[in-house]
Specification:
Distance between the termini of chain A: 30 Å
Number of strands of chain A: 11
Order of helices and strands of chain A: HHEEEEEEHEEEHEEHH
Strand order of the largest sheet of chain B: 10-14-15-13-12-11
Strand content of chain A: 35-45%
Oligomer: heterodimer
Number of helices of chain A: 6
Helix content of chain A: 10-25%
Distance between the termini of chain B: 56 Å
Shape of chain A: globular
Structural class of chain A: alpha+beta
Chain lengths: 157, 578
């Protein structure tokens, strides 16, 4: 885990929302913010969070595919999470801006998604199995379920 | 997987190869004693291995075959060895299953019934007598049994065929070390990482060169070390790549067996010739070639070569010919499958394509019509046979060849025959590439695909309707503007008003084809660089004209383009649009 993410977690743990009583009935989750859209997912598939590297776009745009990055010698594909879930296509030929890149690793391989903000949040463990959205600190977050990660190959096809 | 079991599987595969190699010879020369002994030795070792891992059914099957072979090979005829080829094929599947299961299991194995006509196997008494012999007695040279005079005449009209190359005997254990291919790959990946690190280091030094001018001695030392490092990495890569090289002989011998078995069961008369089996290629390429070659050869036998009476009526030799050849041409290996059968009729293919909804097929040339057989679901076979004609084959063959960064094409003349040409790069690891820019983004194109690169005036591209042509060596060649195909950035809009264009002349067809060369307009030509080719990541977007990815010296990833496929896609889009 990066130094940067560790610092964020440190700050989180001292905030009012993560007191000991709450911690007993909750599990940590990763809250992602990108272009005013919010998502939350389990830590299970998280590989690392990196500062945005140069994203090389594909010669043509298809679905949620944004481009590729070099992560210490490993070429990793990058997706636009919002496009992946909404079916919209990222704009052609425009540079991609994002502050962070979250790299996930699933059995089929690694992939990255763009993010402006990444934070640790504590949520009810049932949330992942019960609904597609959850309210955290007054803001609606879309839940990235285990099915999302296990079916990623089908979703990007 | 248990190391001992892995060792057994490798040995079993070697023994099966030895069995098949010996049988190839024995089918042609049933009284070849050396091959018969080699067959028995391999069969016996295989049986022992199955016994160690308690694969009882396979062990019993080996034992049964050993008994049927008997001690004296000369008593058997061609029919027996052809049957034995079929009988031992079950072991291949068995070993494959055991490899997948990663554990020994007693998988039942069925031996097909022996042919009754021309019975040449030993009598029960002989078998009993053989079973009594010890292994030492059996392999002993001192007592040579008498030969029986019974021989079976070959039923098919096969001309005398060249003796297949003998399968080399395994080296003594002390001279070789078995290493799983995955370990060799790991070493190779490490070398490529070192290669990229050296590239990156070189880039950083170049960037810092102005500051290093004050220390010329340091710069000279660094240049000398860099040169040594580059050579050492190159040598290491070449040596490790050599470890992965195997000859084509195994695959070619397998094709020979496919033909023999077809001839045996279908009553056609076919002569099979092969050339170039000693050419060495990467093991992965050789392994991946078997399926497409089997498909092409089965197609040639089933649909290409006519029955003997039809051939006679056409004034042809009643015996059809299939040639399988391999040769090195530049940085590629060229594998040809040639038959002298009825050939492909472009008009029939055109009509079939139109029926399948490919409306543009009416306008295509004869050469293009013949290549329609590689379209998905395209088959002109009137009936589906167990051998071929299911209509899912040729596009799969093409896909398999393209997965090896290769290409396939067909040339054919009615009643003369067909030639399938497969071209595969010899090395797909490090490629000399031209880095060019298209609409502000850099792409790598292998040198092997580029004939010339020019910066020329727009006026040198001659328009003809919506298309443009460039006069290349006295011939007009079509020009495809990549800057219009790829996404355009704002910065790039400014550069296209310039009068100069960068043109790459690339090879897009074979000698004699209508479209041998094409021009590609790119935004700029940057520099040459050796790049390590990595496969497209499994979860990345797969585009047909992107053949791999690499990482440049400055750390940026880059796509490797295949101009041939790029133009194919462009032509398909144009055809569909019109």
């Amino acid at each position: 885990m990066s130094q940067w993410l560790a610092e964020i977690f440190e700050k989180q743990s001292s905030s009012a929302t993560t007191d000991a009583a709450l911690r007993e009935n909750t599990v940590p989750a990763l809250a992602i913010e990108y272009h005013d859209r919010r998502f939350v997912c389990d830590f299970e598939y998280l590989s690392e969070v990196i500062e945005t590297d140069v994203i090389i776009p594909y010669p043509e745009n298809r679905g949620a595919h944004v481009g590729i990055i070099n992560m210490r010698g490993e070429v990793v594909p990058v997706y636009c999470l919002h496009c992946l879930l909404s079916g919209e296509v990222p704009p052609t030929g425009k540079p991609i801006h994002s502050e962070r890149m979250i790299v996930f690793r699933v059995p089929d391989g690694a992939f990255a998604i763009c993010a402006d903000k990444v934070q640790k949040r504590l949520i009810s463990p049932e949330a992942f199995g019960q609904s597609s959205e959850i309210e955290i600190e007054g803001k609606i977050h879309k839940i990235l379920s285990h099915e999302f990660f296990s079916n990623i190959r089908e979703m990007i096809a | 997987m248990d190391d001992l079991f892995l060792e057994f599987l490798l040995e079993a595969e070697e023994n099966l190869q030895a069995i098949q190699g010996a049988l190839d010879v024995l089918v042609m020369q049933p009284d070849d004693e050396e091959s018969f002994k080699r067959l028995l030795r391999a069969l016996h070792t295989l049986k022992g291995g199955f016994g160690v891992f308690e694969m009882k059914s396979a062990q019993d099957a080996c034992h049964q075959l050993e008994n049927l072979c008997g001690q004296d090979g000369s008593r058997h005829g061609k029919e027996f060895y052809l049957w034995l080829q079929e009988a031992t094929q079950g072991f291949e599947g068995l070993i494959q299953q055991a490899r997948e299961a990663k554990t020994p299991s007693d998988i039942p194995i069925t031996i097909p019934p022996q042919p009754t006509a021309g019975e040449t196997s030993p009598s029960l008494e002989d078998e009993f007598a053989i079973a009594e012999l010890t292994v030492e007695q059996f392999f002993g040279e001192e007592k040579k049994p008498e030969k029986e005079e019974v021989k079976v005449e070959a039923k098919e009209e096969i001309k005398e065929q060249p003796k297949p190359a003998p399968v080399p005997e395994p080296q003594p254990a002390s001279a070789t070390v078995r290493v799983p291919l995955a370990k060799v790959d790991t070493v190779l990946a490490g070398i490529w990482e070192a290669f990229m690190a050296r590239n990156r280091m070189s880039y950083l030094i170049e960037q810092s060169r102005p500051h290093l001018q004050e220390a010329p001695a340091l710069l000279r030392t660094w240049e000398s070390l860099d040169s040594s490092l580059r050579r050492l990495i190159g040598d290491l890569e070449s040596q490790v790549m050599d470890l992965r090289m195997v000859t084509l002989s195994g695959v070619f011998q397998r094709m020979s067996r496919v033909v023999q078995q077809f001839v045996h069961s279908h009553g056609k008369s076919i002569e099979f010739e092969s050339r170039g089996e000693n050419i060495e290629l990467d093991k992965r390429i050789v392994d991946s070639l078997a399926d497409p070659l089997i498909h092409l050869i089965r197609n040639a036998m089933d649909h290409g070569i006519e029955p003997p009476d039809v051939r006679k009526a056409k004034g042809k030799d009643p015996t059809g010919k299939i040639q399988l050849t391999a040769e090195i041409s530049g940085a590629e290996v060229v594998i040809s499958v040639i038959d002298d059968g009825k050939g492909l009729d472009p008009e029939v293919l055109r009509q079939t394509a139109i029926k399948r909804g490919l409306s543009h097929a009416a306008q295509v040339s004869d050469e293009q019509a013949i290549n329609l057989i590689f379209e998905s679901g395209f088959s002109t076979a009137e009936s589906v046979s167990e051998i071929s004609g299911r209509g899912v084959g040729m596009d799969a063959v093409k896909t398999q060849i393209e997965a090896l960064s290769g290409r396939i094409e067909v040339k054919s003349s009615v009643d003369v025959g067909s030639t399938f040409l497969i071209r595969i790069p010899l090395s797909v690891s490090v490629l000399n590439s031209l880095i060019c820019t298209i609409n502000g983004m850099e792409y790598a194109i292998p040198h092997t695909d580029i004939i010339e690169a020019h910066t020329l005036d727009q006026s040198e591209l001659k328009p003809n309707g919506p298309e443009r042509f460039y006069n290349f060596r006295g011939e007009p060649i079509p020009v495809f503007d990549m800057t219009k195909l790829f996404p355009r950035t704002e910065r790039e809009e400014l550069s296209i008003i310039e009068r100069k264009v960068s043109l790459l002349v690339v090879r897009t067809g074979e000698d004699g084809s209508a479209c041998k060369y094409s021009g590609l307009v790119v935004s700029g030509i940057s520099h040459n660089q050796e790049v390590v080719i990595k496969p497209i990541p499994p979860l990345a977007l797969s585009l047909p004209y992107v053949s791999g990815v690499s990482i440049l010296a400055d750390g940026r990833p880059i796509f490797l383009l295949s101009p041939n496929k790029l133009i194919q896609q462009r032509c398909t889009h144009v055809a569909m649009a019109s």
